[in-house]
Amino acid sequence: MIAEPKPPRTVLEAPGVHYLLGRDFGYTDERSQWTYWGPAGKRAGLAHPALRGAMQLGNAAAAMCALDCLRDKLPLEMQAVRRGLAEVTLPARFQVLAGRPQVILDVAHNPQAAKVLADNLLASGYAPQTIAVCGMLRDKDIAGVLAALASRVTRWHLASLSGPRAASADELAAHLQGELERFATPAQAFAAALKRAGENDKIIVFGSFLTVGEVLGWLKNNKTSKR
Fold first, then answer.
1. CATH number at residue 157
2. Residue 20 CB neighbour total at 10 angstroms
């Protein structure tokens, strides 16, 4: 199942049967609900997936297409499918934490994932200020990732990571303009962002599993610090 609207040619040319979004399966977004269509017909009146983000209907449609193709070997009642859509979780993929200011965790570390994150931020509503807490590895496309998000961020809190592959905050800053601060660790960068942010602002934590993991650890140890 290929849910990417414009998949690479190498994927399309790979041997095997391909089911393409928009050709073999798809969806119609009807705001309060959505309709899936695929090899086994239509399913209307579906609740939106619990996962946030503009791409999630395409992902859900791909999953339902897979179930259509496996229905003889893996029959599922529609009630089970609806429950799965309502209860699905995917930590650190546009994971929105409860409370104010809004904190969003996303391990985006390549330009494609960063573009999706930028689109999701745009769709998530206005915030007076969006503070980015970012730490990355040196072998990633740092310039491409930061450029994809630059228009959605009003202030940068750049963190150095540890280890031989880690990029420093100074290395990240070399690719940016505007308001930014440098920190020795993601935890320090996040704590400073939390102090600066108003309750209607957004804080996005991204760039590496290491960055998101350290911030999650900080939040676990400072449960009363987030307003």
1. 3.90.190.20
2. 18
What pTM does this model have? 0.71
Find the angle CA(121)-CA(123)-CA(128) to the nearest 5 degrees.
Answer: 60
Whether the CB-CB separation of 95 and 165 falls below 8 Å is answered with no
Per-residue pLDDT tens digits for 42-68: 999 888 887 766 678 888 999 999 999
Q: How many domains does the chain have?
A: 2
Q: Is 143 contained in some domain?
A: yes
Q: Is residue 147 located within the same domain as residue 217? A: yes
Domain identity same for 71 and 135: no
**What SS3 state is found at 82?**
helix
Report residue 160: phi and psi, to 5°: -80, 140
Confidence grade of residue 139 (pLDDT, cut at 50, 70, 90): very high
Query: Distance (Å, rounded) from C-alpha 183 to C-alpha 170?
Result: 9
Helix (H, G, I), strand (E, B) or coil at 2: strand
State the pLDDT at residue 48: 84
